[in-house]
Fold this sequence. Notes:
The chain is mainly alpha-helical. The protein has two domains: 39-168, no CATH class; 173-213, no CATH class. Helix content is 65%, strand content 4%. It contains eleven helices and two strands; from the N terminus they run βαβαααααααααα. A two-stranded parallel sheet has the order 1-2. α2 packs antiparallel against α6 (105-118) and α7 packs antiparallel against α8.
Amino acid sequence: MTVILVFQPSLESVALDGAKHYIRSTNRYAVNAGIGYDKFHLMQKLNGAVDRVRKEELRRARADENNELIPIYRDCRQRFILFQNQNQLSEKQANYLQRRGEINQPLYQAMLLKESFLQTYSYRDIEEVKAYLTNWIEEAVSSSLEVFKILAQSFSQKMPYIIHRFKKKVSSAISEGFNNKIRRLKRMAYGYKDIEYFRSKIHQHCGLLNPRKFPH
């Protein structure tokens, strides 16, 4: 895929997923723009870290032939619940997750670290956000979970971008929505041979063209 970048000094804020090449491109082509680390992608990182802990504990349980823990870590229902915000869970789901977490300390610690990070978004004062993030990073680094130690170091390096999101409330939600529509279009058609027709369908479904001009 070819990405065309245009010099845009007038941009004030850009929401990114934290990837280094996106940050470099923004610093080069949008020299006056502040960079915000999008919440959606932060949650992806946190959920990925929790799932890596789950997989590691599953491997350990299999090596130990622990028939009590193996089905728990392999359970698709638990994996789904792990990725949810706890205040969005039903009482039954919350109790299920609590019981499963208490069985295994590393998984429980990972769940707590994820949930405690979400408390960052309850603050509005920038200095309070900085203080809470600093404490969370210290807590994660001092934990026994290597994946969270690495994640905390990454968050520490990208602290200015996380803070900028709180200052400007920037989000990549619209572009993520477009990306989801494009992926769905591609799946529905099992791919497109004509790239120009695919481009037209993208414009149509993303609201940039009159759909009457492009019948299904």
